[in-house]
Amino acid sequence: MTNRLFKTVVWGVGTMSYCSLLYVATNKLSVGFEEKHRVFMDWELEIPLVPWTIIVYVSFYLLIALGFLSSRTINDLKEISGQMILAATLAAVIFLVFPGELGYDRTAEVGVFASVYEALFALDGPVNMYPSLHITFSFVAAGFITSLTKKLWWQIGVWVWFIAICFSIILVHQHHLFDLVTGVLLGWGCRKII
Fold it and tell me: What is the reported pTM?
C-alpha cells in the first residue's frame, strides 16, 4: 500500500468512525425520548416503498469512499474530513434536541432484500431523521469529487448518482422530504464553511 493510499484510508476510516459512533450514540439516546417531532406531510405517506432502491441507498458508502479516494493532498483529506465531522457534530445536536418521527410503517414486504432492510432497521432507530446524514455526506462527497475534476461527464455522473440517492432515501421509507432538504442544506453549509 502506498503512503498516499495509506493516509487516505486512515483519514477516511477515522472520519467515518467518528461520524458513525456519534450517529449511533445519538440514535440510542434519542430513541428513548418521549417527545418526537413529526416533520412530514400526510401525503408523503402515500409514496410507495420500492424495495430494490435499497441498492442505491447503500451505494452512498461507495460515494463517500470515492470522495476520500479522489483526494490528492493532505489538505484535500483535511477538507473532506472537516466537512463531514462538522456535519455529523451539528446534526448530532439537532438529533438530541429535536428527535424526529418516521411516518412510514416498517413492516412492508421487501422480498429478496429482506436481510438488507433488517440490518438497516436493526442499526437505525427512526429518530435521527433530519437532517439526513445520508444526504449530507453524499452531498459533501459529490461536491468534493466534482470540484477536483474538469471532466463534465464525470461531474454529471456523480450528481446523477447523488440525485438517485436522494430518491432512494424516500423510496426505501427511511426519510421524508424535510430530511432530504435539510440534509442538502447542511452539506452545502459545511462545504461553504470548510
Answer: 0.93
